[in-house]
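pinned: reference chain
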Amino acid sequence: MKIKASYKEKTDIPDGYADLYEEKDGKWILTGVEGIKNVEALEGTLKKERDARKAAEKESAKWKKLGDRDPDDLLKLEDENAELKTRVESGNDEDAIQKRIDAAVAREVNPLKRKLEEVAGERDSALEKSTELSAAMINSKIDKALTTAASSVKVQGSAIADVLMHRGKFEVTEDGKVVTRADIDGLTPGLDAESWLSDSKESRPHWWALSAGGGATGGTGGGNQNGNPFTSRNATEAARLVGKDPGKAEKMAQAAGFPTVRDAMQAMARPKAKNA
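pinned: its C-alpha cells
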C-alpha cells in the first residue's frame, strides 16, 4: 500500500494515516510529516525561475556583441581616447575634436556598462533562486519517496519522522530516481527507498510494530511515559515520542546528552546495525 500526497475524500485515506492529512480547498492534503512540501508547486516555481534565468541569459547575449564588435572593444574606447589625444596635432579645432570624442565614448560605453551590470545582477539572482529551489525540490522528492516506501513496507506512522531524518543518505539521479548515495562509507549505493527500509528492519525494529510485552500499555503511553526514553535507550518509546511530539523529543534527546534526536536514534540502533 502506498499513500498519496492528497485524497478527494477523507474516507479514501488509508487506515492509520488520517492524522497526517488536513482539509484544504476541498481536498485532504498530506501535511503531518515534517519536511514534506508540495512537490508539484515547487516544480512549477522552479520552472518559472529557470525561464527567468534563460531570459536573463538571452538578454545578456544581445549585449555580448554589437555588430562585429565585442563589448570589451567598446570599453577600450576610453584607452583609444587617450591615444587620440596624443595624435591630435595642435590647431584651432583640437578642443572641438576632443569634445566630440568624449561624447562618442560616453554615448557608446556608459549605457552598455549600465545594461551589463543590470543583466548580470538579474542573472545572478535567477541562478541563486534556481539553486535554492532545486535543493528544496530534491529534498521534497526524497521525503515523498521515503514516506511512500515506508507505507509500502508497513512502517508505523509514528516512525515516519525518524525515517525522514535519514534523507541525507539519498540522492536524486538524472533520470529522477531516488537512491542511496555512493559517497557514504558502509552504505550500499543505488538502493531505492523501499529496499533500504527493508534492509533496516533488523537494525531499526522500532520503526515497525510496537511490542505488546515488557510492560507497554499501548496508546496510553505507559511504561516510560514520565521518563526520558533516550536516557534509558528505549528505542520504541523514543520513536513513539518523535512521532507524537518532535519538539519535545528533540529537547529530551539533548537532555540525555545527544546533539540531536537523529544522533540519539542512531546511537540506540548502532549495536545491531548492519547497514549505515
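why pinned: Residues 109 and 236 are 70 Å apart (CA to CA). The beta strands are 6-7, 21-24, 27-30, 170-172, 178-180.
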